[in-house]
Design brief:
This protein is mainly beta and 182 residues long. It is 9% helix and 34% strand.
Length: 182
Amino acid sequence: MSKKIILVLPVVLCLFLFKAARAEIVINEIMYAPQTGSAHEWVEIFNSGQDSIDLSNWRFFYDSDGDKVYDSDESHPLTLRQGDNSILDPLHYAMIAKSPAVVTDYAWLNFSGTIFSATFSLSDEDAKLIAIMDKDKAVKNSTTYDPNIGGNKDSGNSLQLMNDKIWKALTPTPGMKNEIET
């Protein structure tokens, strides 16, 4: 019996101590009321995991009817606009920009990394649920942003995720680590 325990114990310890590498896409920053107008709205996503993720066929969900229910009919496919491929490496950022017909050049984002577009119009007034979905339309990350936190057009601020749980209105940091609150 003791030999079995000695043989099984290392296996059990390895299973408990082994931390599986996994990739996680996080909605990290939201620009819902840019000073330059609604055509320049964007959402930043961040790969906080240890694996690269192929965002081909992923979708952006915006709860346009306010029912706070995920509906794949309310989600829009991500379209690669800038970058060589749709792979998001660990600890890297990508942008999802609004894609009205009038915006074909995303230089206004001041971001040289991967930019996707999706059809959406973020509310300046009501709290809304947004999400990023994988190719199977499974929600990978979601949040409800609240314009009452700040970030109105007059401020020029975006909403930034702090410590993975609190949203703050701060100076936009597209493609970079969120601003440290002073």
